[in-house]
Amino acid sequence: MAEQVNDQAFLEYVVKTIVAHPGDVSTERIVDERGVLLTLNINPEDMGYVIGRRGQTAQAIRTLLKIVGAKNNARVNLKINEPEGSRRGPAERGSIDTSSVDDLKI
């Protein structure tokens, strides 16, 4: 059981170290037939830290989660909740392409 929640603990650890409000970080973990879905909730002021320029930080976190998932034979996906009051504009709210690591085999 401890191996299965490593992905959630890893996500919380990484995000809490890069945000200004680590106490506001929370995650939800749902397992279904498509794999593991981790939903990340953060303070609206921290969105920029987690997303990064052009989504690079979020992409890096997703890549690391896919590696952690592959180690445990699970497909791990990350959803970042858009909090009320987020400073990102409408043009920046598109989805991030993770196709380069979707079928990562380790």
UniProtKB/TrEMBL annotation:
It is found in: Cytoplasm. Residues 79-106 are annotated as: Disordered. One of its GO terms (biological process) is regulation of cell shape. It comes from the Bacteria. Pfam families: KH_KhpA-B (PF13083). Residues 81-95 have a biased composition (Basic and acidic residues). One of its GO terms (cellular component) is cytoplasm. The keyword Chaperone applies. CDD domains: KH-II_YlqC-like. Keywords: Cell shape, Cell wall biogenesis/degradation, Chaperone, Cytoplasm, RNA-binding. InterPro entries: KH_dom-like_a/b, KH_sf_prok-type, KhpA. Coiled coil: none annotated. The keyword Chaperone applies. GO terms for molecular function: RNA binding. HAMAP family: KhpA. A probable RNA chaperone. Forms a complex with KhpB which binds to cellular RNA and controls its expression. Plays a role in peptidoglycan (PG) homeostasis and cell length regulation. Forms a complex with KhpB. This is RNA-binding protein KhpA. It comes from Candidatus Falkowbacteria bacterium RIFOXYD2_FULL_34_120.
